[in-house]
Structure formats: structure tokens, C-alpha cells
Write a structure and sequence with these properties.
Elements lengths: L7 E4 L6 E2 L1 H15 L8 H5 L6 H8 L6 H19 L2 E2 L3 H10 L3 E6 L5 H9 L7 E4 H4 L3 H12 L4 E5 L2 H9 L4 E4 L11 E3 L9
Parallel strand pairs: 1-4, 1-6, 4-5, 6-7, 7-8
Antiparallel strand pairs: 2-3
């Protein structure tokens, strides 16, 4: 299937549409401080390797040990809602213009992420891009895996020829598990094999 045949684009968020890693580091470190946990600060390099995973998986990797994990997660959500809308992130070049052009060509636009419950809301509030998306979903909202959320989006909207656009191996694998072809964003946070397409800038979606 050629790119022009896709009638719907389902986007990952972090590493695909924007880079908010520095803000997320602030959230993690503020939560660690609130609980008095003795561990090295979460810096960009440490968190970067975990991007794209659900929050509980990141927690296991970065903050092992004995503490109230549910309380930690709850406090982190509260701090994320305070910090990320203010700290935000950096959109990759021409994200709005490219999505507007895809919509003008008749494509439907969706967002599926492994972020926490407030992640999508924070992204839309900071970037002002909410009007461009027909629907969105996240692991932190419904507890489903990325593959399940992609499949749910396809089923919910009766998508015939969708493509998932993401930047990690998990994105490619999840897309394929949902029966959807994948675009790998090589400019993002991870390496990936097996995607049907590769782009080195967001704008390449228009001419792939």
C-alpha cells in the first residue's frame, strides 16, 4: 500500500510530535523528593532510554526499592498536572502544518500514547493542537496496551487504511500487533526495525 492510500494517521506523542523529556524529569524528581527516596536524580539521559514505556514500567527501571508505589504514582500524576502544562515541551518542526495538510487531503487524525492519565490533556493544553485530532487514547486512561488502544481506535472509527506513526520499536511492534502498518520516526527517541516506512523529519509524511 502506498502512502497516498492511507486514510487515517494514528500518532504516538512523545518522540513523534514533541520532546518533553526535560519537563518529565522535573516531574519524576519532584515526586522522588516528595517521598524522600534515596536514588540518583532522573536526568535526561536516564529517562530518554525509557521513553514510550508505560509509567509503571519506567518506575520499575528507574526507581527500584521498597516504597508505596501506588501513592508514588498518584503523587506523580498530581505533579505532572502542575508542572507539564507550565514546563511543556518542544514540538518538532512543522507538526501543526503537516497535520493540517493531511486533514486537508481528507485524512482523519488520531493520537494513541502510553502516557499517564493527564498526558494527553497536558499536551493539548500546552501546544493548542487539540482541534486537529478526531480522537485520542492512552494507557494511563484505560489501562490498555498500546496495541490494544491502536486496535480500539481502528474499531471505534471503522478505519479502513490507517497507519501508525511512532518512534520506538514498541510503537512498530504494537502497530503490527494491531494489524496496522507503521511509520518509524528516526528523529525520535528510539531505534526500530520492521516498519513499512521511515521518516527523518515530520514533514516527510507529506512526500514519503
Amino acid at each position: 500500500m502506498k502512502k497516498r492510500d492511507y486514510d487515517a494517521y494514528i500518532f504516538d506523542m512523545d518522540g513523534t510530535l514533541w520532546d518533553a523529556v526535560d519537563g518529565y524529569c522535573d516531574v519524576w524528581n519532584a515526586t522522588i523528593d516528595a517521598f524522600g527516596i534515596d536514588c540518583p536524580p532522573i536526568d535526561r539521559d536516564r529517562l530518554f532510554t525509557q521513553m514510550g514505556q508505560p509509567l509503571d514500567v519506567i518506575m520499575d527501571a528507574l526507581i527500584p526499592g521498597d516504597y508505596d508505589r501506588d501513592a508514588f504514582m498518584s503523587r506523580m500524576r498530581e505533579l505532572e498536572a502542575e508542572i507539564v502544562p507550565r514546563r511543556g515541551g518542544v514540538l518538532y518542526p512543522r507538526v501543526r502544518e503537516v497535520i493540517e495538510e493531511l486533514r486537508a487531503r481528507g485524512a482523519r487524525i488520531y493520537l494513541v500514547s502510553n502516557c499517564g492519565a493527564s498526558g494527553l490533556r497536558n499536551f493539548f493544553a500546552f501546544t493548542g493542537l487539540g482541534d486537529l485530532f478526531d480522537d485520542s487514547g492512552a494507557h494511563g486512561i484505560n489501562g490498555l496496551s498500546k496495541a490494544e488502544n491502536i486496535a480500539l481506535m481502528v474499531e471505534r472509527h471503522g478505519l479502513k487504511h490507517p497507519v501508525y506513526v511512532g518512534d520506538t520499536q514498541l510503537d512498530v511492534d504494537s502497530s503490527h500487533a494491531a494489524g496496522v502498518p507503521a511509520v518509524w520516526c528516526a528523529y525520535g527517541f528510539g531505534e526500530a526495525d520492521g516498519a513499512e516506512h521511515r521518516i527523518d523529519s515530520f514533514e516527510e509524511l507529506l512526500s514519503l
